Amino acid sequence: MKFIIATHNTHKLDELRRILAPLGIAADIDPALPEADETGVTFAENAFIKADEACKFTGLPAIADDSGLTVDALGGEPGVYSARYAPVGSRKATVLKKLEGLPTAERGAAFVSAVCCVFPNGDTVTAEGVCRGHIGEAPRGEGGFGYDPIFVTENGKTFAELSPAEKDAVSHRGRALRAFAEKLANYLEEHHVDE
Ligand code: ITT
């Protein structure tokens, strides 16, 4: 079965593809897909909005990820507004500035990913993944994208200091997609859909 990936973020697309491929899920983008209006107030709502619009636009089952960084000391911000929290290039600095002076114990944070697949008949398969860590004192590492250089994982390295495979093994997106793949396989079996 062919799936559309509903994202306009090329870094996220790379991750979705490299995690989904070994799970046996082949997915592609539609370059003509318009950007959806992310009006939801939860990751799950926005993932549904993006997948639903892409499914209606292409007529194919569509998979979307809505994700972001939630910082405990900021009441969960930037959360669903992670992509729009501050002008491009100043998002990490904005988070670091707001946490200035706080000790590590008060810098707890999590990355969250909600994945949703919408089928042309309206059915949905959803999953969520969370990776806890804390916000470092300064950016570190060259890998990844977005907030990766300021998110310190349980092993002390930032997401940006991990190899792609190391990030996928523990990341919010890796966890969400592995749970999603299991639920999708069950759905396809129950509905007698040949892969
Ligand atoms: P699409 O909606 O087109 O998929 P987007 O970038 O707008 O792309 P989101 O609305 O889900 O996606 O916003 C997610 C933002 O959260 C993203 O732009 C990053 O700033 C941040 N983010 C999510 N996952 C991340 C990760 O693995 N590493 C670093 N930052 C991440």
What would you say this structure looks like, in words?
By secondary structure, the protein is of the alpha/beta class. It is built from 5 helices and 6 strands, in the order E-H-E-H-E-H-E-E-E-H-H. It has helices spanning 10-20, 43-58, 91-98, 164-170, 172-190, and strands at residues 3-5, 27-28, 62-71, 108-118, 124-135, 151-152. Helix 4 (164-170) packs across helix 5. The protein is globular. The relative contact order is 0.16. The structure holds inosine 5'-triphosphate. Inosine 5'-triphosphate binds at residues 7-9, 12, 38, 50, 66-69, 82-83, 111, 144-148, 159, 171, 173.
How is the topology of this model organized?
Blueprint: E1 3-5, H1 10-20, E2 27-28, H2 43-58, E3 62-71, H3 91-98, E4 108-118, E5 124-135, E6 151-152, H4 164-170, H5 172-190
Parallel strand pairs: 1-2, 1-3
Antiparallel strand pairs: 3-4, 4-5, 5-6
Helix pairs in contact: 1-5, 4-5
